[in-house]
Design brief:
By secondary structure, the chain is an alpha/beta fold. It is built from 14 helices and 19 strands.
Amino acid sequence: MWWLKDVMVIDPSQNISAPRDVLIKDKMVLEISASLTEEDVLVKAQGESVETVNGKGKYLFPGLIDVHTHLREPGQEDKEDILSGSRAAVRGGFTTILAMANTQPPIDNRALVEFVRRQGERAGYAHVLPIGTVTKGMQGSELVEMADMKAGGAAAFSDDGKNIQNAEMMRLALEYAKLTGFPIISHCEDKDLAGDGQMRRGVASGRMGLRGIPASAESVIVARDLILAEETGGKLHLAHISTADSVEMIRKAKARGVNVTAEVNPHHLIFTDEEIGITDTVLKVNPPLGSEEDREALIEGLRDGTIDMIATDHAPHTQAEKARPFAEAPFGIASLETALSAVWNYLVLPGRLSLDRVIEAWSWAPAQRFGLTGGTLKPGAIADIVLFDPDFSEVIDSTNLVSKARNTPFLGKNMAGFPVMVWVEGKLVQRDRVVK
């Protein structure tokens, strides 16, 4: 049994943000109390040995849930695999990750869904829940067997990496997905408007001579999908929102009662297109980084609940791929190990977001929307838990990352605020940044 003493508990599911003692026993949260004596704990241990952790000065919250992770397995294990990705997840404080379906081959049938689940169980770190594609082969022309894939363990459906360009196919997907109770996760990018753009169209792209992607490439699909969700009553989840226009459209749609949720990535909350360098591809992401106006709108949207959750969009690539010229390098940042610390340093410490809101957006909100176990410290809940030390610091170095990927903008930076203990189903899987 674990006794976590005098720790600042943040649990949005119970509206707790206060010092507490917490007991973990038999894979579950046994009790949260304002104060426990040693005698109390020994009685509850019932003869079991007790390991005590002094939590003073630290935060305890539910294990984070990432609804947008690229694990690359099957087919691209040189970039990442389920074992390395799930180890990176628990190092970063994530106890549940939803694995995107744009692997090679795509996760478009029950057998592949079951394969990803088995690989996650074998790894034994974070819970790995596969997302299935919406269309067969991600070709946008024929729906997958959603009910069968749900029975095999799929957690949602998305052709992320590609937009479902055909509006009628998207409408049918929203209708069909209602039978499963799952949301359709939309990759909002009109391919005709985006073309072969490399970054957001604007002053910065013009200065660097790079072909730009207009903000409207996202906004027109957000508008379309909101209309279709309203028409069908289907559950819509909008991935990696990046523009001010998208935030405003979502805000108005929610006011009308549209069944929609949205996510934002940490890099869109922290960086803008002005920080991209022509010889540095680490900030080349899709959707591309926007303007300062976009960044401010995203922060406000997350703060007021228009944007429901944060998601990493962990997109690992090999060093050789990211070393290509800007126009040839792939999009994406590897972020599972650094995302929480980045948000802490760049947004919480400067007072732009409260830690309570961040934890809600990364635990309880995704658990509720996707119907997942976790996201709470209620007694009787599975003990997926993070102990966060705001004073623990480390230099992000290529030698201490456990992901296969090194494409992070924080490489070489000395950052403070990290998960120092992580439990998955009551089992300690990470301590002092070392994965067990």
